[in-house]
Amino acid sequence: MNKIPAISILMPVYNAELFLREAIESILNQSFSDFEFIIINDGSTDKSKEIIISYNDPRIKYIENEGNIQLIATLNKGINLAKGKYIARMDADDISINERLKHQFDFMESNQDIGLCGTWFETFSNTGNIQIVKYLCDDFDIRIKHLYQIHLSHGTSMIRTDVLRKNNLFFNKEFIHAEDYELWTKISVYSKLANIPRVLYRVRNNEQSVSNVYKEIQTENTKRIIVNQFQKLKQGFSDEDYSLYLTFAYSEFSLFDKQKVKKLDELLTGLLYENEKVVFLPVERLKEYWSEKLFHVCYNVTDCMDIWGKSVFYDKRRMSLLKTIKKYIKRG
Q1: Fewer CB within 10 A of the terminal residue: the chain, N end or C end?
Q2: What is the pTM of this model?
């Protein structure tokens, strides 16, 4: 009887010969060894197949699609094939740090309410440019970020398989090039999300990345995901609402005037009241978060503090702090 692996690592491959060995070996050399490595060749026409089958490791489960069925269908095929308690993603041109699986497995085992876990990661390129990306780690913080941008890297993800199976969750082909973002928002309905505050993954930047080649499609589908989330709170969430919320979320103060700030206050107030009915997000934490951000908008946009004073988000503690700061500035 075959032992059920703790983790199923899922890696689709399409014409990835340049960096494929480095990706495969970063998994085979993990300090945590209780896994199956599902590598699905999605109709590659280069030497990807020869590279994959050159490895004699029983943990590798090589699957070959009859043709190129594209990434989303391949990912869903992998989900159905996975036997592990967890499914971890791996891209064919990236690198998993040696301790990645161990840290994520231990974290998931210790936090049974977490259904999806990512990590901090490092981006790198052939030019030697390196950047550390430190996503927020708390479930609420990630959910708030997901109201306007993805905040959990696909390549770093580890998912509790039961969450997917019990709720019939898969990647959706209607959200191509933003399919991970869409799935994360669905998973968040059933479980908590987290990021581990350690760099455990390396993402290779190149000119052929999705964000470069398919930017328009990705942007449009990202917008649909954001709107879908807000429609849980406001059925008529419009393009104007979408634009207003993004301007607010990114603190683009120069794009506001007093009229827009009034509309923003009305929008947030309506969303807050609806959230109290359905509890899409924790009520008090959401109010506190929007309160702080709205305060900064009103403070930085000319003649808008009266809007703050009349808002349901008004917080006298912030006003007291502002008075104290102004007092010290005058003394200086």
Answers
A1: N
A2: 0.92
